[in-house]
What we know:
Membrane topology: Peripheral membrane protein
Radius of gyration: 15 Å
Coiled coil: 88-115
CATH architecture of the largest domain: Sandwich
GO molecular function, one term: proton-transporting ATP synthase activity, rotational mechanism
Largest sheet: 9 strands, mixed
Number of helices: 2
Organism: Nocardioides gansuensis
Distance between the termini: 25 Å
Order of helices and strands: EEEEEEEEEHH
CATH superfamily of the largest domain: F0F1 ATP synthase delta/epsilon subunit, N-terminal
Subcellular location: Cell membrane
Amino acid sequence: MAESGSTLHVELVAADRLVWSGEAKMVIARTTEGDVGILPHHAPVLSIIIEGVVDVQTAEGETWVAAVDAGFLSVANNRVSILSEHAEMSHEIDLEKARQELERAKQAGENDDAAAEAVRRAEARIRAVERAS
């Protein structure tokens, strides 16, 4: 176990459930300003996250990968909260189904905001699975 104060307490929360919670050495998430890496003792941050992938490197050396929709990232006092409408751990995602959803979303039309959001969500889910393998 990592020494006290050298880890972050991380909670990844979707609208309907707690997706992942635990101690981590680092968290990487995509914000509207670009990718951000959070280490222990990071300055307080409140940021908007976009559809993408969140990487959590645990205190035990494991890497957990999740696909998230837009939401918020909050960092304060070695606590990281990631709040998203939808979030899925990579091992929960059916890769073939995600690829089919991507094709359907692309066929729905590029000028449609809902279709563009569906494309970004499907792409994030695919990236999460690929990054975790």
